[in-house]
Amino acid sequence: MTGTEVLGSEIIRVSRLSKIYDTGTQALLDVSFSANAGETLILLGSNGSGKSTLQKCLNGLVQPTSGSVNVLGTEVSSAGKKQLRALRRQVGMVHQRINLVRELSVLSNVIHGSLGWATSARNWFGATAKQEQRELAMDALDRVGLASVAARRAEQLSGGQQQRVAIARMLLQRPKIVLADEPVAALDPRAGRAVMDMLWQIAEEESLTLVCTLHQLELARAYGSRVIALRQGRLDLDTHMAEVRDSELAGLYTHEATEEEPVPAFQGVRP
Q: Distance between CA atoms of 225 and 63, rounded to whole angstroms?
């Protein structure tokens, strides 16, 4: 780990990344890009384009077949378990499936975000957590506008509120990078916009590097400054959103594959 990252310095480098699953599915093929500290990226592509696999390669949940992934100074593809645990403490996740413990209080769920650096079993529950974790969790909830519902069970909240709780939980992790995987896909448009506004505001205020997978082109246009697009496992676009035509974005979805659909092997020399 580098310990400190200067804003604008490179903290993600993906080089010629390929992934072939045991089923023979070619999920990624020769993908290369980099990202700097504090940068926000939109990751686009149809179902089966390799978006989820790429995100999982960034924190070592999926091992590549070839190529390299370096995140925060850690060579992820060759890192040991201890190195990966240390890296994952610095990489926050915001999922489409919110993954709160529905039966526990909102406060307890947010405190869970501190378990990577405050490992006491007391921190599994708001009632037994140390005062420091309770205060940090309440500050995070206040930041996402939900301090007033800290005592409620998570299952009592709306979908949009639950996703904001998940963002508060991510804040308690103190990450340097956030991987957001379709964070508003399950929400109605109004709630989705509110969550996106909050996620982008927090990323800016905390100087976080944000890699956000989206399926909705209108949201990509509204929030994206840089877009990375995959088509059937290959890098199709890596540019500023303002330079991308609507037809290029729409063209990414002309082939809707399933996650398990095999991608034909690449033939010939890549230009």
A: 29
Q: Find the angle CA(62)-CA(64)-CA(65) to the nearest 5 degrees.
A: 135
**Residue pLDDT, tens place only, 189-220:** 898 999 999 999 999 999 999 999 988 888 88
Cα 209 from Cα 72, distance rounded (Å): 11
Residue 88 dihedral angles phi and psi, to the nearest 5°: -65, -25
Task: Give how far Cα 198 sits from Cα of 20, 78, 143, 167, 245, Å.
Answer: 36, 35, 9, 9, 27
**Closest among 97, 99, 79, 101 to 88, alpha carbons compared:** 79
pTM of this structure: 0.84
d(CA 18, CA 68): 9
Q: What share of the chain is helix, strand, coil (3-state, %, to 5)?
A: 35, 25, 40
